[in-house]
Amino acid sequence: MNYYDKIDGLRFVAIFLVIIEHFAGFLGKFISAGYYGVDLFFVISGFLITTILLKPNEKSFKTNYLNFIGRRTLRIFPLYYLTVLLLWIVNIDTVREQLVWVLTYTFNYAIKINSVNDNSPIIHFWSLSVEEQFYIFWPILIISLKKYPRVLISLTLAFIIVGYSQMVFNIFPELSKFNYVSLLTRSASLCMGALGAIISLNPELISLDFLKKKWLEYVLVFITIFSLIIKTRYQPLILGFSSLYFVLKAAHFDFAINIINQFLKNKHIVKIGTVAYGIYIFHLPLAYLLTKYVFNVFWLKIDFASWGEYSYLHYHSWIIKFPIYSVLTYLLALFSFKYIESPILKLKDKFFKY
């Protein structure tokens, strides 16, 4: 598969938005940073896995399906289950209480069914559950129908329409409490990325040349920023299309706004983007443990009343935590990628070669 360096740049944007949501105090609440970060991850994932699945080969359905599942398993499972094991050992309440849900990648439903605390250090694992559920059924459709792109586009659009209709209009009221975390709704973003892959590999159906238009890029950038700041009923749909545009643009063209181009291709940005999975897995557990056993030990002993005009810092510890926790999370993810993930990833071509 082609390597898209600017896609890794987009991964940086996605993980940075998630970090802002969780580490940057009121700043993270001022914009829909976490929502858009995860949404962008979903669209990127849908685009990349569908691109892989659509590549022509002569292998059987069974072989292609097992190869895909095997490669995804080697990429996702080791770090995830290692993190769960470590958190179980250090006695994190949510892990022990919701262990079955966490181990079976159904934690996205446990959040609502069991009213899991939003401050749980594994609350973000819900999105990994959605992706794993999607990985089970989506390859079946793509591999079975890859020779029928028009049928694939129609089915993909159907999933998108149903998913966003539920999020925006609550067409199934009894499912509304799961709108943010369910496969039904969030597969809309994954399918949005899949739609991008299908039309990318079938240019005879839809030409992507319209993406080159400068005015469209300026409009999409403005709409994205506006939608991040001003929440409307149609925000999920708007940001979903926004994510699709940026993914397709990053994959196939340069951006007219040169600063975006330079940013997404910057070697440091790309490097951080390549370890975004580790950053996502580690950031909340690391922050929880550091706050409980290190940061608060010192912070709560400080006499802020004697700090005069700077006493407000007592209630804004995020100013200190944000840069420190971000750097430490990145370093941990870098270590993990080099010494844990990379050796395991080398097994993909040994056991599940496309």
Topology:
Elements: H1 5-23, H2 25-30, H3 33-54, H4 61-89, H5 93-97, H6 99-103, H7 107-113, H8 125-145, H9 149-169, H10 183-200, H11 214-229, H12 235-252, H13 258-265, H14 267-274, H15 276-299, H16 318-345, H17 348-351
Helix pairs in contact: 1-3, 1-12, 1-13, 1-14, 1-15, 3-8, 3-10, 3-12, 4-8, 4-15, 4-16, 7-8, 8-10, 9-10, 10-12, 11-12, 15-16
Description of the structure:
This protein is mainly α and 354 residues long. Helices cover 73% and strands 0% of the residues. Helix 1 runs antiparallel to helix 3, helix 10 runs parallel beside helix 12 and helix 15 runs antiparallel to helix 16. The model has no long low-confidence stretch (mean pLDDT 93).
Short description:
The chain has 17 helices and no strands. It is mainly alpha-helical and 354 residues long. Helix 1 (5-23) packs antiparallel against helix 12, helix 1 (5-23) crosses helix 13 (258-265) and helix 7 crosses helix 8.
